Amino acid sequence: MSDLRITEAFLYMDYLCFRALCCKGPPPARPEYDLVCIGLTGSGKTSLLSKLCSESPNSVVSTTGFSIKAVPFQNAILNVKELGGADNIRKYWSRYYQGSQGVIFVLDSASSEDDLETARNELHSALQHPQLCTLPFLILANHQDKPAARSVQEVKKYFELEPLARGKRWILQPCSLDDMDALKDSFSQLINLLEEKDHEAVRM
């Protein structure tokens, strides 16, 4: 091989290295989704979201009105609007539904029968609300680490999810602060549902 060919080969290799190092460009932006998070006071909404955001548990204060957190995942960012679950706040939930692309409903699986009945009524209302009924739902049966916790199957039966949510996109998952891997997996499933809905909208 001539000196000229050798020189050209080295120059081309240098060019390829330069492109690999300097011309990648910024990584593609992660999609963002606006979600609403609802559930009764004491269901653990704030603690779960704070843990996902790697916030100190000492700074967790129960939400009385509403708060917004950007929850980062590898393939998406979830902008979660958490609504307080007190009696005097729940009647205003629907005012904050507009613009939501998905719903997170957190229930205390170890709560009293009365609170569980109230949670069921609120979930039924959300599933049938005109602004939410077509959206993906992630339903979290929280506090699975407590002795009185009801299983996912018990919650599904008590909440009558099979007949009520038939034809809707919903996921029911157990969770607790002690099992973050399972919690993150639940949110990954929700992100998959959100992406599917996006793709369907593009095809229409």
From TrEMBL:
Q: Which organism is it from?
A: Tursiops truncatus
Q: Which InterPro entries match?
A: ARL15, P-loop_NTPase, Small_GTPase_ARF/SAR
Which CDD domains does the annotation name? Answer: Arl9_Arfrp2_like (cd04162)
Sequence similarity: Belongs to the small GTPase superfamily. Arf family.
Methyltransferase as a keyword of this entry, yes or no, is no
Sites binding GTP sit at G39, L40, T41, G42, S43, G44, K45, T46, G85, N142, H143, Q144, D145
GO MF annotation list: GTP binding; GTPase activity; metal ion binding
Sequence positions that bind Mg(2+): T46, T63
Among its keywords, does the record have GTP-binding?
Answer: yes
Q: Which SUPFAM superfamilies match?
A: P-loop containing nucleoside triphosphate hydrolases
Family annotation (Gene3D superfamilies): P-loop containing nucleotide triphosphate hydrolases
What's the protein called, per UniProt? ADP-ribosylation factor-like protein 15
